[in-house]
Amino acid sequence: MKIIAFHNREDIAALLEEVEAITQVKIEKVEDIEEFKEKTLKEQFDAIVVLDTFFESAITVALNHPKLSKALCILLQKEEDLNNFLRLGISEANIEYIPFNPLTFLVKVRALQSNTLHIKEAIAKGHINFDFFRFGLFNVLNVFTSTEKSLFLSVKNVETDECLYTLHLEKGQVVGANTDIGRIIEINLDDSIPKRIVKDPLEYEDKVSFKDTIQFYRALLKGKITEEVKVTPIEDKRENICSTTDHKPSTEEVEEILEEALREFEPVRIESVRINPLREKRIYSFPYKRYLIFTQPYEGLGG
Prior knowledge:
- The chain is of the alpha/beta class.
- The protein is built from eleven helices and 13 strands.
- Helix 3 links the parallel strand 3 (47-51) and strand 4.
- Helix 5 (102-125) crosses helix 7.
- The radius of gyration is 25 Å and the shape is globular.
């Protein structure tokens, strides 16, 4: 496996050297966009690793290079910046926090490479139906840029089959969407909705247009979410009620109201809770030279 790493930090270089030392993975380091362009034109890489600071310039080169790997892992410097990239519909394997465990990093990049190849093969066979969280809208769209396919790609609610939004692709590039960018951001950030990415047989009118997939990504990163509806504070309502009456309920009246409220209250059982893997720390294991290696102490698994 061969990786190109676009960053300018010594601590990252040291961690990547550890990866090379314990595996047969080769990692080429570049520190500026011109060197990144030059290397990717001359050599073949299985995956791209990029510091979040350089994300936009790196993805621009990657998507304009049809033969360059579309498996791109982002090294995140601040955990609070995660939401910026969740807007793109990334998968768990697309993000690694700094500092990272070299073994966790390796497992993620291998998983990302595997998922990207699966997406490529499925698209070639016409089997366009991907789990949103596992494969990532970001990865699906990246792979499409290396094709000449024109279609409508919908993100749907798995449980209701509701079409949440649809993207219009021409010659592999996103050129439009049937809803505004703020709504797309909201849906991509919503962990509670189980989503799938599917080819839609229907055609939709474009509400917004884009030059290409890169411009679509820029819109997602810079777009604004719809403002929340303002709610009148409860305190204001209480003041209005008190001003219309001087009556103070007795202890008996209060108890009667509480009993009535409890009789009407019916607790709802939650059958399952969905957790976005991007928001939790995970432990991985993989075989290496006849040993089972864990990326965190095994005690962390409760074993």
